[in-house]
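User:
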Amino acid sequence: MTVDSRREFLRRSSVVLGTVAAGSVAMVNPSPVRGAGMPTGRIDPVVGFGWEITNLDNNGADVYFEVESAMTLNSVNIDVAFSPTSTSPTGNVSVLCAAYASRGGVPTFNNTGGHAYVTNPASSNFGSVTLYNPNGLSVSYNSSLAQDQLYAVSLKTWVPSTGSAAATSRQVLANPSLSLSVGDYVVFHIDHEGVPGDAEMQVVLEYSLA
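Assistant: Predicted structure:
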């Protein structure tokens, strides 16, 4: 661009800018672009709680609470962790963590072996579980699908003689979209096998009222 053409360009630009400055300019706030999961005018309530079992030693426990308003349980965010409290004997650890909805009443339990299992009815929408085991492996499994189970995690770790690197944890975010009625209960379960230790569960629930 020559000097003369540059001057002409700047002169024309000054005229345009002056014209804009002489008018009125309305500031428009841009509308935010909503991504997946962003609120659309209504923010659903969120609640949370935690519980811990100390000195788990081949046993288990449960906590539960009543649903007092009809709702849809949209999401559950659950963090569980286990830490050994002993290194004698060394060996494996297995910690089962689960959550269920109990329809219309207080949940029932089966304390076989001290594990305090939750007794949920079998689903009527699925057949029984069938095992194919041509190699004669030692297999343990549930013979039916538990109705209204909304969370299940198994923590497994090895505890060496030093106890180092034996702690284990898991966080799960699930979106069950589960309808709950007044008088239903939500129940959480932890049980343990192996080297003794402490287990903790932290829970956040997001829901919308009916």
